[in-house]
Amino acid sequence: MRPRLVLFGDSITEQSFDSGGWGAALAHHFARQADVVLRGLSGYNTRWALKVLDRAMEGAANESADPAAVTVFFGANDASLPDQQQAHQHVPLEEYQTNLRAICAYFKNKWPSAAIILITPPPIHEPARIRDMYGDNAPSRQPERTNEAAGTYAQACIAVAKELDHPVIDIWTQMQQFPDWQTSALCDGLHFTLFGNKILFDEVLKTLESIGFSQQSLRSDLPLFHEIDPKDPLKALEI
């Protein structure tokens, strides 16, 4: 039975199966070795995600086996500013951490052997957010998210991961290591370009390898084409 990877998060997870997305890249990378299950909920924060966890995870795993790993990627919406246009998405910092703990506890109870990988919210390019929200760059406009707030929530996510001894990907910091990340990695100041998806894909692969989950450690499901004897093709399929 193929192991499963479950991706749980907001729009950046939901869009990860778009062409060039980090989730699609994982599915391609582990083709015939593992199944990647998408559970992305665009616009959701940790408060909403916690509310729908049971429903969201229906069918995500085989009844006879826990997923190998679950990614938990929330915070971009929680970090929306409480006095701006997307205020209804805002979750206070302490509640964000409490919700992350509860989500992790849910997965630990539901799938005891699954690795839980937390991913911080990404950085924010504020001028692009203003253009995306309002369609112009008027000086009076204020972004609904800031990079400073995203960084605060990223540190809070890291703190929870360390507290619970879960792996964590600090995409807020990693993405800002690249030149012109504001436009090379982000398409609208929040969501990822192809390059931004590649950055996260590489970080997820490294994290999976650190817990012993890699192409080298997994077997391919069913005989490979070169293993099938042209003179007796069905023999290799007698399994």
- Amino-to-carboxy terminus distance: 13 Å
Q: In which range does the helix fraction lie? A: 25-40%
Largest sheet: 5 strands, parallel
Q: Classify the secondary structure makeup into a structural class.
A: alpha/beta
Low-pLDDT sequence parts? none
Order of helices and strands: EHHEHHEHEHHEHHH
- Biggest sheet, strands in spatial order? 2-1-3-4-5
> Overall 3D geometry?
globular
Total beta strands: 5
Report on this model:
With 239 residues, the chain is an alpha/beta fold. The chain contains ten helices and five strands. The chain has a five-stranded parallel sheet with strand order 2-1-3-4-5, with helices on both faces. β3, α5 and β4 form a beta-alpha-beta unit. The longest helix is centred in the middle third of the chain and has 18 residues. It is globular, with a radius of gyration of 20 Å. The chain starts with a strand and ends in a 29-residue tail after the last helix. 38% of the residues are buried. The mean pLDDT is 93.
